[in-house]
Amino acid sequence: MSSFRDPGLDERRSAAELARKAALEKFRAAQNVDDPAAIARRNERAAIVQARKEREEKRAAEKKAEMERLAAEAAEKARAEEAARLEAEAAKVAEENARKASRADQVARLLADEAERKAKRDAKYAARKARAR
């Protein structure tokens, strides 16, 4: 059989008291500001914090540069699209003007042909009336 011994209340109380004293001593030792180990730990922590801050600033600067680059690309794309749109619109207006000019020319030719036919017909009628007299 195993020999298990159940600790009594006094033993548990004294073990808890010893643990509290050990924790208090550890805390007091950590609070010692003149301790070289504590100074080294504080310096190490400060260096870690500084390095982290520098990395975050570097990432923020890279992110800002990337955002500026994307904004510049978007602006350039918008300018190119606007130029293409204006060019297409100008071509459309030019085509419409050419179509209108062509239509006006066609109408002018049609009116001139009509006037010429009328003049020929009037001349023919006038000649017939002159022969009849």
Major sheet characteristics: none
Low-confidence stretches: none
Secondary structure tally, helices: 2
The helical percent reads over 70%
Strand content: under 5%
Number of structural units classed as domains: 1
User: Mean pLDDT, as a whole number?
Assistant: 91
Report how far the terminal alpha carbons are from each other.
163 Å
What string gives the helices and strands in order?
HH
The 3D shape can be described as rod-shaped
Report on this structure:
The chain contains 2 helices and no strands. The protein is mostly helical. It has one domain.
Short synopsis of the structure:
With 133 residues, this protein is mainly α. The protein has helices spanning 9-31, 36-132. The longest helix is centred in the middle third of the chain and has 97 residues, at 36-132.
